[in-house]
Amino acid sequence: MTIVLGFEGSANKIGVGIIQDGKVLSNPRRTYITPPGQGFLPSDTARHHRSCILDVLHEALELAQIQPKDIDCVAYTKGPGMGAPLVSVAIVARTVAQLWNKPLLGVNHCIGHIEMGRLITGAENPTVLYVIAYSERRYRIFGETIDIAVGNCLDRFARVLKIPNDPSPGYNIEQMAKKGKKFVELPYTVKGMDVSFSGILSYIEDMAHKMLSSGESTPEDLCFSLQLLHR
Question: Which residues are in the Gcp-like domain (predicted)?
Answer without folding.
Answer: 29-227
